[in-house]
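so the lab meeting is tmrw and i was supposed to have these ready like two days ago... anyway. pasting both below. for each one the top line is the aa sequence and the line under it is the structure tokens. i havent really looked at them closely yet so no promises
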Amino acid sequence: MTESMNNQNELPESVSASSPRTHSIDISSLTRGDHQLNIENEKIALNVNDLRLSYGEKEALHGVNMKIPQKRVTAFIGPSGCGKSTLLRCFNRMNDLVDGVNIQGQVLLEDQNIYDRKVEVADLRRRVGMVFQKPNPFPKSIYENVAYGLRIQGINKKRVLDETVEWSLRSAALWDEVKDRLNDSALGLSGGQQQRLVIARTVAVKPEVLLLDEPASALDPLSTLKIEELIHQLKDDYTIVIVTHNMQQAARVSDYTAFMYMGDLVEFGDTDSLFTNPVKQQTEDYITGRYG
């Protein structure tokens, strides 16, 4: 799986040979098995209204408005420093941990503003789980990594823990690989296995939304493929938002894509349309490799 899009001689079917594109997205990777997606027909998981975020005097997000549909995969693309990860971290208030941050606007989860003072952040993060770029298993056994969130909630019945650990590892396509060594240290797993373990740990507490911040960027191609296949499986049960620098990956795994630049949401739409027929010239320039 290449990070760069170097098929310069292969143009999408919807683009004429005279088009000045320098790169292309593989159209075969855009097959969804769905009818044409339309955000207006979707149930909405997260509704972002005029979201602004500043670090001190520097505004990093400039009035972002978007709707994240339920049980779909939404990808954020754009050059480094454009605000993708900052926006993602707004959805479970991870930016609250940054000194000097100021956030204005709304992020609605089931019509409740997650930035309302009445919202318990710990409860929010159980509903909106996050997986980071670098796998971060705890220095505990594989079993205890998955059971950790349940124990925090006061769930300690062995039968419940056993069933949930197995279900979570199966959900993360990891059970068959680790079922005979659940008491071994999670740190002994490969990088790809560790990332799937972290996903299992996240889904164990039954979140509604999964946030994935470059989940495969540190992995080898085979592990990346497993993570992408896992994303396809998980979207049947979860709303997934993924940040990725790899546009081929965004094209493969997502239903909707948001292109960001310099803190602005430039364009948002169904992935097929955005990659093959972008509305904004700036989007066209980015996905064809003219900058970024």
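ok protien two:
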Amino acid sequence: MKGSSSEFDRLLEESFKKRKSIEPGSRHQAKVTSVKNDYVFVRTLGSQVLGNISSDEWKDEIPPKPGEVITVYFLKEDAGDFYFTASLVGDTITPDTLELANQFEIPIIGQIGVETNGGFEVKLGGVLGFVPFSQLDSNLRSKDITGKRFKFIVSEIHSKQNKVVLSQKKIADREKETKKQLLRDELKEGMFVTCQIKSIHKFGLIVDMDGFDALVPASEATYKKNVDLEKEFKVGESLRAKILSLNWEEGKFSLSAKDFLSDPWSEKIPFKESDILTGIVESIKPFGLFVKLNDHFHGLVPNKESGVPQRTPLNTVYSPGQKIEVFVLEINPEKRQIALSISKATETKDRMEYQEYLKSDSETPVVSSFGLALKKSLEKKK
């Protein structure tokens, strides 16, 4: 008899501890045991309390699967049944649960209503709330969100004014931080990701990488030099990119799209040394001219190969956008460099014209004054 009494006391104490561990508003991790039409049944980890959650909380989402662990908040016990919530919604939103939500930051689902001065009205079951513009996630501020449902945190309750002030930004920041921790473990430098272009700038592409902004520098977006990125890409376009660097502390992430583009230097180069090409002056530097040969290849004309006398500024003779003829001196695939010469192109063209002249005039025994002058000029250059 004494043994059964001590067993009863033990069970009573365990029951007391279990009840104490699930005070209204307390937060728990719980495993989903089964999913029915009206309820999702869970068992809390640690305290092992069986409870249920209204299926309406997942009206706009895919409900959790059996075995999945979710965050829940205890609401009440009624006739031996334990009621939990993941996000208060509809009929579960009452004055009492609103107070719990305010005190313990329990998420609450509301529908965006009309825009008012400084924010939006929000329908919370039978209660009307208000979310200021400043408490909306920045990604939503430029979008039409009227009629859409979101999760909120209750910031303030003004009973006399019958006013509930909400914050959607706190939920978004919380979800972003959770996702950040997961991605921090998952993403590594050198991995490939799929991202979406958010905006295009001269310095590169700002892309959405799993909810975080990342930069694809202009030099890593394409193999083309000095390209107009707005002509090459479109906002909303999906890209596959390689992670170059991850700075979680400062929130700076750098990517490269080059691995999914063909490298022109790895293919057959469309010209060779000693070719004479038409190029466009791209920029003028103290040491020479950068010349665009086509969309993928550029070369340098050093000062001494420009045909301009020493101490004469190049920008007094040439200007960006000007078409010029250049001689290919050297192609260095390892350094991805091409050396060019304007003076050599002029000299070579003169020589070719002279040889063509001699060939066409070979039947005439006497060389004309033009031919003599050209011959004399070329011999001086030798």
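from a quick look at the 2nd one: The longest strand covers residues 69-78. The CA atoms of residues 370 and 376 lie 10 Å apart. will dig more after coffe
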